[in-house]
Amino acid sequence: MAEQPMIVVRGEAYREVPPEQAVLNVTLSARDRDREAVVSRLRERSAELHALLAEAGDAIERRETGGVQVYPELKRGSERVVAYTGSIGTSVIVTDFEPLGQLLLRLAGFEHAAVNGPWWQLRPGSRAGADVRREAIADALGRAREYAEAVGARVDRLVEIADEGAGGGERPMMRAVAFDNAQESAGFDVDPQPQTVHAAVTVRVTITEPDLEPSSKMSG
Predict the structure, then answer these.
(1) Would the pTM count as exceeding 0.85?
(2) Domain boundary residue, one of 58, 93, 121
(3) Average pLDDT rounded to a whole number, residues 202-219
């Protein structure tokens, strides 16, 4: 028995969707000749930062502290310590963009702080990824039906769907703005950047026996 004819097609879909998260990085720093003074100042500034972030309430989904550093500064050409420098980083994920501009304004005015962000992105496993994958599959099946109809056949059975490794915002589009001890009068306008979600699939289907008779008559 002859093998059933098969069609292999590629389906693709793109969609622009609003971002779901804004990511900010805040780095606090301190410098002093005394190591304990540096540690103490970092602890105090970190507590002040956390109090400020707490005022944002549910607008902040998550905050994580990491990248703590305290290291000596040596006099050039010797091993004598002239001062100690320290820093501590905090990553903040914001999901309510309405108060984001004011939050950025207050963070940028925070003493001895460097602020980077926002980076716009979708949530991991965002629903937008699932929707665009379905669109890619529909695109592939639509093409398969067109090819089958072109040879007088129809799609019979789905054999395989292979994901080409896309979907869900494969690489978040980001835009960052850096602030360092900005003046409160500056003000910040925040425009969330749309995210491009892409998916591509390969679909294999079998088709009914082609009817090539019309093509044969035309060629004759």
Answers:
(1) no
(2) 121
(3) 76
